[in-house]
Amino acid sequence: MTATTATQSEPRAKPPGKPHGKPRTKPGPAAGVRVRTSRLVLYAGLVVVTGLFLGPFGWLVLTGLKSPAELAASPVHWLPDHVQWGNFADAFRLIDFLGYARNSLIIATIYATLVTLSSAWVGFGFARLNAPGKKQLFGVLLGSMMLPQIVTLFPTYLLFAKLGMVDTYWPWVLWGLAGAPYLVFLFRQFFAGLPRELEEAAIVDGCGYAGIFWRIFLPQSKPVLAASFVIAFTWSWGDFIAPQLLLSTDRSTLAVAVMTTYVTSAGTPVAYLQAAASVMYVVPVLLIFLVAQRGFVAGMSTTGLK
Amino acid sequence: MTSITARRHRAFYMFTAPWIIGFLLLTILPMGFALWLSLTTFDGLSPRWRFIGLANYRELLSDPVTWDVLGRTGLFAVASVPLSILAGLALAVLVNRPVRARGLFRTLLYLPAVVPPVGVGIAFKQLFDTNSGAANGALNLFGIDAIGWLADPYARYVILMTVLWSAGNIMIISLAGLQDIPRELVEAARIDGASAWRTFRSVTVPLLSPVLLFQTVTGVIASVQTIMPLLLSADATTAGVTSIPQSNYMYMMHVFAQYFALGRYGYASALLWVLFVLILIVTGLIFKATSGVVFYNVDPEAKK
After folding, report:
1. With contact defined as beta carbons under 8 Å apart, do B166 and B120 qualify?
2. A86 lies in a domain?
3. CB A259 within 8 A of CB A240
4. How many domains does the structure of chain B reveal?
5. A104 and A17, same structural domain?
6. Which of B115, B187, B243, B253 could make an S-S bridge to B119, C-beta 3.0–4.6 Å?
7. Is the omega angle on the peptide bond into residue B153 within 30 degrees of 0, that is, cis?
8. Range among A107-111, B43-47, B228-232 with highest mean pLDDT value
9. What is the mean pLDDT of residues A11-19?
């Protein structure tokens, strides 16, 4: 801490244009050592913290690679003697893993596509159009971001049950069509930043607002569309409680299957199978995140900052 | 001229209609339905339900379990929200330093926040398993006896750790906030002789306060809603909700149990409405308490 303070309080002493490094002129060799130690401490701290953050997932993978005997052993068997790749094959085969994955994929794709388009559409209205009541509506939109969703989910479930929509994918279609306040806000922020001339030219050309949205604004917003799709997709892929309530076991999603189906006949979870299955369930999300990282993070920060 | 304005007004409502209709049908209607249910004995099955006025509310107020779950949930929020914000902010400051490979560190620290709740639940169940968990393995190295982490009274610490594990979320948002702070302000403070800590406290934190406020409010709402106790329990089904260890049996779990394990729709709806009103009050109080402290007036021109 103190040593980095020394580097930062002496910016003038550094040759211009050089990035942070050892201060050259005034401080003696002791200061240099101090700078280096503090760097070392900083890196060590970062590595330890990162290790702690990766630990739980690492342990999940290890658990999925152990044999039942190793998991029952006491004290803890840290590493598998023979890596049990077979656990992954078993987890894949013992339940209809692909079937559940397909259900998850269908639901997440339906939801993410609809909610992205709908939110863009609504966001365009809030960003580019005006009408009496707009301010109040926008206030309601922002306020609804803070509504606890699970509070509405339970009575919504009862209503869906009354309408005969339990065990169908219709709820996700409806949720998608309604747009999501977070994503509406994301699109509103983006569309509000585009120049005025964009729609003025189009209005002169006699293009309707729907046409302006579809032909001019939507193509401009590809990065936001991608970010929105990824956020909505991963959210839906990760959702447990809605499919658990709304879908029967064989129409349900991978999240529900991984959590509830790897059990013995007595109902106790089989650790190595559940661990292996959850790795296979989580890894696609991590990959999507790593690929789409930039837009994903930008989207998260925009919605978080207001 | 007026026709253009009128067209524009109509267009606004045409564009916002999906959200307005969705909000009415999927939020207001269910909430209203729950409010009405909360005044009845409805259980979803028997046709002989009746209107009982405020009896459900009277019952829940006189039931000690309500106060237990409320207290537990409040304690969880009070512990988890400040801790995770502190952790996220510390991480953000750490990876905002000019260190090599900080992009990699940012990614790796954020990664757990992307893991879906089901993955988090299973990972922590394995980590804290009494026999095969790494936590007890580490304790064993120091000669400490195995702890039943997932049972009372330790389960509450495990759920706290799941929240901290996702601190990458707060890190990313705080990081964006940190990067928005005008460099000149920090540099001016340093030139005036303020220490690094003093600068952080008196310049950085006030400028970050809107972000921190937002994190506090969303954090409280998220902690009240969490279903992690269910995901950490041995049986994460509607039937298993009653077997959650006491120390993790929070308000939402109680509602869940009343709805789906016991089918008391009326009573559970009353519980939901009490929670909803409490959240509104708490959120309002947070905004009120911070209205003098949160600093919104960053001149937008100053950033450029």
Report:
1. yes
2. no
3. yes
4. 1
5. no
6. B115
7. yes
8. A107-111
9. 40
Q: State the maximum Cα–Cα separation within chain A, in Å, rounded to a whole number.
A: 79
From first CA to last CA, the distance across chain B in angstroms is: 38
| Nearest residue, CB atoms, B26 vs list A71, A175, A278 | A175
Nearest by Cα to A103 from A244, A251, A229: A251
End-to-end alpha carbon distance in chain A: 32
Angle CA(A118)–CA(A124)–CA(A128) in degrees, nearest 5? Answer: 165
Question: Residue B120: which domain range?
Answer: 36-43+51-297
Distance of residue A82 Cα from the nearest chain B Cα, in angstroms: 16
Residue-level pLDDT at A11: 39
Structural domain that includes position A45: 2-64
- A215 forms beta bridges with none
3-state secondary structure of A238: helix
* ipTM score of complex: 0.86
Nearest by CB: A154 against B12, B137, B255: B255
CB-based contact A249:A261 (threshold 8 Å): yes
Contact B20/A137, CB-based, under 8 Å? yes
Which chain B residue is nearest to residue A149, measuring alpha carbons?
B225
Handedness of CA B190, B196, B201, B203 (dihedral sign): positive
CA–CA separation, A293 vs B107, rounded Å?
Answer: 8
